[in-house]
Amino acid sequence: MRNVFVLIAVFVCMMIQVPILTLLGLTTFSVDAPLVAMLYIASTGPGVVGMVIVSLMGLLTDLFMPGGLPGMQMEILVVLFLLARMVVSRLQLNRTLPLIIVVFLSSLVSLGLFMLLSVIFDRGYQHSSTVVTGGLAQALLTALLSPLLFKLFGVADGRFHHRRDTRSLFV
């Protein structure tokens, strides 16, 4: 139940992001909020419940991608969740630099999985350098803004528990 508020925060971030970026003409530069939320859930929640929430988050992300393969983002987020569970068991993400590095690497893995699954399952997909450059720009932007999103998800999670996290993200 605690991760439902994180799921709602991701939905609100995606709903706000789409019209603002369209208004500014920056539709190629978006922040991958579900990826950061997936890392937050992997670092704070139990495995099975977290995987269910992450798969719902991936399905929600698929709804925001018209013309994409249904279930692709869900599959990518679940695979990344399983990989992230192994990483966060060895590395804590409550500091800025490790969080930025893990988010950047996760974004690159997500881009690679997207391209691999597109080549395998989408007959009309043709490899394009714009997908790679757009994915790299999104990975960099997501990594740089991930501490703020991580803190937002912590606030959304803390509202449910009525507790404050004593670990500082920015120190």
CATH architecture heading: Orthogonal Bundle
| Total of DSSP H or I helical runs spanning 4+ residues | 6
Distance between the termini: 30 Å
* CATH fold naming: Arp2/3 complex 21 kDa subunit ARPC3
The overall pLDDT, averaged over residues, is 84
Largest sheet: none
Q: How would the global form be characterised?
A: globular
Provide the β-strand percentage band.
under 5%
By CATH reckoning, the class would read Mainly Alpha
Q: How many domain modules?
A: 1
Strand segment count: 0
Work out the helicity level: over 70%
The sequence of SSEs as H and E is HHHHHH
Low-confidence parts: none
* Rg, nearest Å: 16 Å
Please state the structural category. Answer: mainly alpha
Task: Characterize the structure shown.
With 171 residues, the chain is mostly helical. It has one domain (4-161): Arp2/3 complex 21 kDa subunit ARPC3 (Orthogonal Bundle). Helix content is 74%, strand content 0%. The chain has 6 helices and no strands. The longest helix has 33 residues, at 129-161. The chain is globular and about 40 Å long. 26% of the residues are buried.
Summarize, please:
This protein has 171 residues and is mostly helical.
Which helices and strands, and how do they pair?
Elements: H1 4-24, H2 33-44, H3 47-63, H4 72-88, H5 96-121, H6 129-161
